[in-house]
Design a protein that fits this description.
Number of domains: 1
Number of helices: 5
Order of helices and strands: EHHHEHH
Strand order of the largest sheet: 1-2
Helix content: 40-55%
Number of strands: 2
Shape: globular
């Protein structure tokens, strides 16, 4: 289990535009290969719900990924109400 011998990729350590979906997967769901595989397979469904698309030459805009999940779980409304 080589994935257990290194530091996992953290979301805030990713560049502004994330070129590799596997790096984003690890930052979102952790280093375990099966969880990353499932997350990567769900990308088309996530994109259909508004997940930021991968743009040529840039990748996925990391801040937009964070906003997507905040909206998905209702955190954006909670922060506005407070």
């Amino acid at each position: 289990m080589a994935w257990m011998t290194r530091q996992p990729i953290r979301f805030d350590d990713l560049p502004l535009f994330v070129a590799k979906n596997r790096d984003l997967a690890e930052a979102v769901v952790g280093p375990e290969p099966e969880r990353k595989r499932i997350w990567l397979a769900s990308l088309p469904e996530l994109e259909a719900c508004g997940f930021p698309r991968h743009t040529p030459g840039h990748g996925r805009y990391r801040p937009a990924v964070k906003v997507f999940y905040a909206r998905l779980f209702g955190l954006d409304a909670a922060t506005r109400a407070g």
